[in-house]
Amino acid sequence: MSNGNRPLGGYDPNKAVDRQAGATAFQPKVKPGAETQAKVEGGGVEPKLAPRTMALPRISAKERPVEAGYEEHLERLEEAIEQQTAAIVEHVAEIAAEKGLDPSDVTLVWSLDITGRQDVVCSFCGRPSCTFRPVQYRTRNPEVDLLGDSIIVFQEAAARAGVKYGIIVYDEEVLVLRDPATAGDQAERADTLTRYTQFRDRHDYPDPNSQSWLQQALAKWNPADAARRVSGDPADGRMFEAAFKIFQQVGGAFKSMVVAKSVEPRGGIRGFEVRAKQAGIQMTGLAVGDRAEAVARRFLDRTLIAQDAHQLRDRVGDGVNTSLQAIKDLPAKG
Ligand SMILES: [Zn+2]
């Protein structure tokens, strides 16, 4: 895959985890002969700085897979891609035939809210429940990797269906990851995923078990830290504005957008829904995760539910096809 000279800021598990300070930070090289001597002198086992807590990192290795190459992702998701692509391809072909148009007259946009959460820990003792020197810290959306899978499934399906497609990702900021256009090659899709990963990983996610981080937080602690907001609200409004802009730029006969999110929208979205209808954009919501029901209640009129985040990648097709069905149901233009 080709990424040109773009720095791969991607995901570095070593950087993110900030291994227990002191435990592995500095390992002087020891000559083979000297090793035994050092052990004897040091008494063997006592580490210089024992980690204060032995709790496991909150996000397990299983939930944060090491970033694999794009082809490995395709292999892993092959079944989901094949199943859902077939239905989308069929649906697009039907619309094109019925309306006498080309698949590329259909524009699909996938919009993904990856807003994380925040949590609290005492910077003095490292306990989450202690109120002595509490600090708020940003945590990744635990489902964020599963959300990312939906981008892969979507762009593969859209590419095979021959539609124009675009992708938006957002949390408190909005990134148009791809302006709507017909598909490029697989390297382009791999590059799109890489840029998603860079956006996803641009924040610092402190490890609340890291002694060095706790010490830093304690040193600069002030009472406001107890209630500080460190993870923003999802920028739903700005996302819709960005979507309207890219739909307007691309033109085309049929427009549809699916918005997947796992946190409730903060403000009302009724106004955006009305504007979308006026602009001829068929919008479908996909509420994901343990708060899916609550999200759905406050989201788009047409919102599907994927209770389990694992389901999102399997419901890409449902979301897209629901919007495509709405296009099919449009009255024929006189
Ligand atoms: Zn404490």
Strand residue percentage? 15-25%
Strand order of the largest sheet: 5-4-1-6-7-8
| CATH C-level category | Alpha Beta
Number of domains: 1
CATH superfamily (homologous) name = von Willebrand factor, type A domain
Integer-rounded radius of gyration: 24 Å
Q: What is the helix tally?
A: 11
What fold name stands as the CATH topology?
Rossmann fold
Question: Could you give the count of β-strands?
Answer: 8
Largest sheet, in brief, is: 6 strands, mixed
Alpha-beta classification? alpha/beta
Quick tags:
334 residues, alpha/beta, Rossmann fold, 6-stranded mixed sheet, two-stranded antiparallel sheet, 8 strands, 40% helix, disordered N terminus, binds zinc ion
Summarize the structure.
With 334 residues, the protein is of the alpha/beta class. The protein contains 11 helices and 8 strands.
Can you lay out the helices and strands and say which pair or pack?
Elements (H helix, E strand, L loop, with lengths): L12 H5 L14 H11 L27 H7 L1 H22 L6 E8 L3 E6 L11 E6 L4 H18 L2 E7 L3 E8 L4 H15 L10 H9 L16 H15 L3 E8 L8 H9 L2 E8 L3 H6 L5 E4 L5 H17 L6
Helix pairs in contact: 4-5, 4-11, 5-6, 5-11
Zinc ion (ZN) binds next to loops.
Structural description of this entry:
The protein is α/β, with parallel strands linked by helices. The chain has a single domain, classed as Rossmann fold, CATH 3.40.50. Strands 5-4-1-6-7-8 form a six-stranded mixed β-sheet, with helices on both faces. It has a two-stranded antiparallel ribbon with strand order 2-3. Strand 7, helix 10 and strand 8 form a beta-alpha-beta unit. The N terminus is likely disordered. Bound molecules: zinc ion.
